[in-house]
Structure formats: structure tokens, C-alpha cells
Amino acid sequence: RVLAGRDRDLAGRHVVVSAGGTREAIDPVRFIGNRSSGLQGLALARTALARGAEVTLLAANVALPDPPGAKVVRVESALELREAVLAAAETADAVVMAAAVADFRPAATSDSKIKKTSGEPEPIRLVQNPDILAELGERRRTGRLPGATVLVGFAAETDDVLANGAAKLARKGCDLLVVNQVGAGKAFGTPDNAATILSTDAPPLEIPLGPKEGLADTVWDLVSTRLS
Ligand code: CTP
Ligand code: CA
């Protein structure tokens, strides 16, 4: 706890956090998924609750206990997450998109389990999912979300982390983008995270490797400053 007055600085605020990773159904038993555990999203929810916020946690396939005190909405796919985010955002002071959202989904989901055939398997055709964060940015820009709503994205990048992150921040129309470097054993499923927080109005902030709670508290520091 570095900053004075951090305790309860989110009292009276409603924050929405998405966590985990979406699953895009191929058939009743199979899906396209990703390696997001939900740990960073849960750390964001817990720290926001500790600071007095009302927290809506949109949990995409998170196999972890619910944080006591949060309103938890479970979703599976990107389309379900989009509905939940847009609904919760209507009363939100901040939306933090920590969930890993699948960029693509199968164009069709088979109602019955796909069986092995003797020949080559059928290819699975993919279509693009809506970009939820970009949609929030666009809604805010066009006055369909309060202008004061703070929007935060997370991005996992493998190469050219800063340049990719800066372009993404602009493209999404969000205020803050937490950029993680991913790769062998980094970030996914681990209790620690290192990141660079890009912001529309400040130089990049380096967060050294440390507990995901620490990173979460820094995100809330920046959100809280923007809200006050
Ligand atoms: N995101 C989203 N909707 C999507 C994809 C991503 O809201 N369909 C959000 C994520 O939750 C995250 C941010 O956008 O907060 C950045 O996600 P990322 O996958 O890094 O961005 P993309 O625009 O999908 O770019 P890339 O091609 O690098 O995957
Ligand atoms: Ca993506």
C-alpha cells in the first residue's frame, strides 16, 4: 500500500471486470479456447472490493472460487460475454476487460457430436467475433456510454510489445492498456505478472514481476485518479 487514501477510494463506484477466457463451441463436447485462468481478473475483483467498489465479475469459464461480495455472471462464449458486458456497462464507472476473448468462432456449431470419418476431416470454418472493448470505446465516443466511464484493456503481446500496445490502445479507444509479455511460463496460470501500463495521458508505466494483486491495485490507482 503506497498511496495514502487508497482504502475505500472506490466506495460508491460500480466497476465491471471480465475474467477468464471464452470458449467457442465446435460441437456439444468440443470448443476453441485459450489459456487464460482468470487469476488476474479475480485479483482485480478482490482488490476493487477491498477498496469499497460494487463489483460485477463477468466470469468466462473460470474454475476458481467466486470473490465474496462480487456479483458474478458466468458466461461461456464471446457473444455471451458481449451481451453481459454491454448490459453491465450501462451503470459502470469503469470496465476492465481482463478476459481473453476469442477472436474467431466456428461459423457453425454442430448440434451433434462430430464423428470420426474414414477420409480427411472437414475443416472448421471460422468467423470473427465482435470486438467488445472497441465497441465500448465507440459507444462512449458516440455518447451511448457516459463520457466518464473508464475503459481498460489487457493485451498479451509476444514481440514489439510497446509499439503493438500503443496501436491497440488507439484502435480500441480505451484509456489504459495493460500489456503483458507472454511466452514460455509467463503470465498464464501463474500468480505473478509483469506488465507495462499504457495510458492515453501519461508515459508508459513499468510494473515489475510481482503478485497479480499488486498489478490490480495499480490499475485501480489509475482508474481512481481518472474518476476523481
Ligand atoms: N477484446 C475484446 N473483444 C475481442 C477481442 C479482445 O473486448 N473480440 C479485448 C480483450 O479483453 C482485451 C483487449 O481487447 O482487453 C485486447 O485484446 P487483444 O486480443 O490483445 O486484442 P485484439 O484486438 O484481439 O488484437 P490481436 O489481433 O493482437 O489479438
Ligand atoms: Ca485477440
UniProtKB/TrEMBL annotation:
Biochemical pathway: Cofactor biosynthesis; coenzyme A biosynthesis; CoA from (R)-pantothenate: step 2/5; Cofactor biosynthesis; coenzyme A biosynthesis; CoA from (R)-pantothenate: step 3/5
GO BP: any one term: coenzyme A biosynthetic process
GO molecular function terms attached to this record: FMN binding; metal ion binding; phosphopantothenate--cysteine ligase activity; phosphopantothenoylcysteine decarboxylase activity
Region called Phosphopantothenate--cysteine ligase, residue ranges: 15-228
Details of cofactor binding: Binds 1 FMN per subunit.
Entry's EC annotation: 4.1.1.36, 6.3.2.5
GO CC field: phosphopantothenoylcysteine decarboxylase complex
Cofactor annotation: FMN; Mg(2+)
Binding site for CTP: D103, K113, P130, D131, I132, L133, F154, K168, K172
DNA/pantothenate metabolism flavoprotein C-terminal domain segment(s): 10-224
Keywords, in A-Z order: Decarboxylase, Flavoprotein, FMN, Ligase, Lyase, Magnesium, Metal-binding, Multifunctional enzyme
Keyword Magnesium: yes
Family: In the C-terminal section; belongs to the PPC synthetase family. In the N-terminal section; belongs to the HFCD (homo-oligomeric flavin containing Cys decarboxylase) superfamily.
Function: Catalyzes two sequential steps in the biosynthesis of coenzyme A. In the first step cysteine is conjugated to 4'-phosphopantothenate to form 4-phosphopantothenoylcysteine. In the second step the latter compound is decarboxylated to form 4'-phosphopantotheine.
Name the UniProt record assigns to this protein: Coenzyme A biosynthesis bifunctional protein CoaBC
Organism of origin: Spongiactinospora rosea
Lineage, highest ranks first: Bacteria, Bacillati, Actinomycetota, Actinomycetes, Streptosporangiales
Covered residues, full protein: 172 to 399 of 399
